[in-house]
Specification:
It contains 21 helices and 12 strands. The protein is an alpha/beta fold. It has a 5-stranded parallel β-sheet. The protein is elongated, with a radius of gyration of 26 Å.
Length: 504
């Protein structure tokens, strides 16, 4: 079996060490053959850095690295271009001053590598001089590649002033590209998020955003066909090790890791998750683990806006069209960072589309809900799964006293000042029920709306209703909840099996 390229983002290293590579060069060839300036947005750990590295090797004419790939006999290897690759993951910066110095050092380093002496003292003019001299020295126009093009600004998301200052420096730097157009052959930029008016931000007149393009929808990520073709030996091995049939394993892999999409049709796996899974042979949350989405969780909690974590949401193109600092909606942030993805796309009119967004898969859903429930309850994440497992067993067994005990444990650390906040508790219980396996079926999912949740598993359906009151007697509220279930006959559609009614 070929080695799994876990953590390898260099195309040269990957190919030189005979690692497994899912051939994306057909999409790459179509892109570079038909355009000049491109932008592609994808979530983290989705193969953007490897794509940029592949483009670098291609334009540098590294023919040996592409043998056996689609593009090998289609590319003109006699043409080699000077490549300037800006990878923000390799630069150090903490404020606007260090950001500008980092860019100055970057330009200086590229110049030294190409035996070019720069005379301009200021960043924009020095960058222009670099591009011009590279063109003159080689006789070929420059290829400019950027990985995570707006990372310094996005890293400052919580500090609007810092974000604005960093954005200004980036704007001045990138706008050089317009003035240097005659010296540039190809420009490609990637990022997690897209700024509103990104063309103006970059100072470019013609800008092709291929984030939703059918031609590039699978340029990053693995399709089902690619998974079964390239990883067949690993699939067989994990099947044997876990005493599972191939079809059963593929079904579970799909539930855990498949589901990302940008056209509502092509479903993709995160490369990092698949590589990590086949390396360990265990189902786990590989994509989510590396960083805690604190700013997202805090923002959702502060606005009590958890709907997107519970049910699919419908939105228009605005969610894909970037953001302005301080004005971004939660849906756009969740989509751009990978916590939501496109599940369906349909025409709303002759000129507009509606997108149905939902959590991509189990790998994202489970820890996303855990972190949200932790934010609302202060219950430790490390103990969350044990608690949830106990409560699931208690519900199935009809163990009301055990369930009540665990509910009290969950609620014990909530600050006293929130005791009379009905919307807060409503959201907390929605999150809890979703984690327990309930399907949230509200007509209107709002902070103060009624709860109507159903949990269905083979042979059993649990119908639940929640009531809240700051001064009412508990038994009265419980009876009121149960009466509502009976009066509205929530259970009627499930009478072909055992039905359990739950009033909280």
């Amino acid at each position: 079996m070929k080695k799994l390229p876990i953590g390898i983002q260099s195309f040269s290293d990957l190919r030189s060490n005979d690692c497994l590579y899912v051939d994306k060069t057909e999409s790459i060839y179509e892109m570079v053959s038909s355009g000049h300036i491109y932008f592609l947005s994808r979530p983290r750990r989705f193969g953007k850095s490897l794509l940029v590295s592949t483009l670098e090797a291609l334009f540098k004419g590294r023919k040996d690295l592409f043998e056996g790939l689609y593009i090998y006999d289609k590319w003109d290897w006699t043409k080699q271009y000077p490549v300037v690759r800006l990878d923000w993951n390799t630069l150090s910066y903490s404020n606007p001053e260090t950001l500008e110095n980092a860019l100055l050092d970057f330009v200086k380093t590229v110049a030294l590598e190409n035996n070019i002496v720069l005379r301009s003292p200021y960043l924009p003019s020095r960058f222009y001089e670099l591009l011009e001299r590279l063109h003159r020295a080689t006789g070929r126009r420059v290829v400019f590649l950027v990985d995570e093009y707006a990372k310094p600004a996005i890293d400052s998301f919580a500090n609007t002033d810092m974000m604005t200052a960093c954005g200004h420096i980036l704007n001045e730097f990138y706008r050089v590209l317009k003035a240097a157009d005659e010296h540039l052959n190809f420009i490609f930029l990637t990022g997690v998020s897209k700024f509103v008016g990104v063309s103006a931000y970059m100072g470019l007149n013609s800008f092709n955003d291929i984030t939703l393009s059918w031609k590039s929808v699978a340029m990053c990520g693995y399709t089902q066909e690619e998974l079964e073709s390239y990883f067949t030996e690993y699939i067989d091995k994990v099947s044997r090790d876990n005493n599972m049939s191939r079809s059963e394993l593929l079904e579970n892999i799909g539930k855990w890791y498949n589901g990302y999409s940008w056209d509502g049709e092509t479903s993709l796996y995160s490369p990092y998750s698949i590589l990590s899974f086949f390396d360990s042979g265990k189902f786990d949350n590989y994509w989510f683990r590396p960083e805690n989405p604190t700013f997202l969780i805090d923002r959702l909690k502060s606005r009590n806006n958890i709907a997107a974590a519970l049910v699919p949401v419908i939105t228009s193109y605005y969610a894909f069209d970037g953001y302005n600092p301080g004005q971004t909606g939660e849906i756009a942030l969740l989509l751009q960072t990978g916590y939501l993805t496109v599940k369906n796309k349909e025409s709303a009119s002759d000129y507009d589309l509606l997108y149905t967004l939902d959590v991509p898969n189990e790998e994202v859903r489970k820890p996303f809900l855990e972190h949200l429930l932790n934010a609302y309850s202060n219950y430790p994440i490390k103990d969350m799964q044990v608690l949830i497992s106990d409560m699931q067993k208690q519900i199935c067994a009809g163990d009301a006293s055990g369930l009540e005990k665990n509910l009290r444990m969950l609620l014990a650390n909530i600050p006293y000042k929130l005791f009379k906040n009905e919307a807060y508790y409503h959201s907390l219980f929605l999150l809890l029920m979703k984690m327990l396996g309930f399907d949230i079926q509200e007509k209107e999912l709002t902070g103060i709306g009624r709860i109507d949740a159903v949990w269905t598993q083979p042979g059993l359906t649990v119908v639940a209703e929640l009531k809240y009151g700051a001064r009412k007697i508990v038994n009265c509220l419980r009876n009121q909840a149960m009466k509502q279930i009976h009066d509205r006959r929530y259970y009627e559609a499930y009478l072909d099996r055992k039905v359990m009614l739950m009033a909280i």
